[in-house]
Amino acid sequence: MSDTAKHIADLRKSYEKAELSEEASHADPLRQFDQWLTEAIAGAVPEPNAMTLATVASNLRPSTRVVLLKGYDARGIVWYTNYDSRKGRELAGNPYAALQFHWVELERVVRIEGRVERTTAEESDAYFASRPLDSRIGAWASPQSEVIPGRSVLVANAAKYSAQFLLQPPRPPHWGGYRLVPDEWQFWQGRKSRLHDRLRYRLDGGAWVRERLAP
Ligand SMILES: Cc1cc2nc3c(=O)[nH]c(=O)nc-3n(C[C@H](O)[C@H](O)[C@H](O)COP(=O)(O)O)c2cc1C
To answer: What region holds the Pyridoxamine 5'-phosphate oxidase N-terminal domain (predicted)?
Structure first.
């Protein structure tokens, strides 16, 4: 084994950059999220819109992957993907999912849970049309999550669909958006001595209840 394996347990960091209090946080978790995401972008966090998406299969096995946040408002949190992918199949069987942002440079984590629905075809069309051409072709070329015999399949598919669609590939029927409608949010701010700040917001009778969780 490498030295890395030997010393991994010694890697430690003290979190001291900021704090999160009941008084200074927003009563609406969406506003809190908007503020933290704005600060992550301003703070030059790499890929600030990258979020880990957890889904659970019908055999109760969880799985995670990274996707990109492409929209957020009072309706929920949006990303785009292949509906036939593993995550798509799992969401078809169980619409509950969890999202996590880890903004390392700000010592912050946001966790979001809720029920997932597909975006409308119009929304998916509009976002698809805004993507660069190679990404639009890529959506056709990649049977996401399927076993393929080699990389050459992707290259051949991309060439085939480029020739077929030229500059105007339509949105594939198996590709589109999902929206997670949050019923719980958590905001974590690292603090000294592992006494981190955690504020959870949960929906109670249509109103958000903000509570502090032990770290
Ligand atoms: C930074 C980053 C962003 C990604 N964004 C997306 C995305 O928006 N949509 C997507 O389908 N896959 C995205 N991926 C790839 C996924 O992590 C994953 O490999 C893919 O969606 C297949 O996952 P699945 O087999 O669990 O369905 C991204 C990967 C990384 C590292």
So the answer is: 37-162
Is the residue at 1 inside a domain?
A: no
**For position 199, which CATH number holds?**
2.30.110.10
Catalytic residue among 31, 61, 75, 194: 194
pLDDT tens per residue, range 165-204: 999 999 999 999 999 999 999 999 999 999 999 999 999 9
202 is in an annotated binding site: no
Say if 9 falls within a structural domain.
no
- Confirm whether 156 is domain-assigned: no
Does the CB atom of residue 65 touch ligand 1 within 6 A? yes
Tokens representing residue 202 in the block: 């949960």
Output the average pLDDT for the chain: 97
Evaluate: CB of 115 within 6 angstroms of ligand 1: no
Is 108 one of the annotated active-site residues of the chain?
A: no
CB 176 within 8 A of CB 80: yes
Place of tokens 């069987």: 93
Residue whose CA is at the smallest distance from ligand 1 atom 24: 86
Asked whether residue 163 is domain-assigned, the answer is no
Extract the tokens encoding 88. Answer: 């798509």
Q: How far is the CA of 53 from the centre of ligand 1 (A)?
A: 9
Query: pLDDT tens digits, residue range 109-146?
Result: 999 999 999 999 999 999 999 999 999 999 999 999 99
Total of domains in the chain: 1
CA 201 vs CA 11, 72, 107, 196, 205: distances in Å: 31, 17, 19, 16, 13
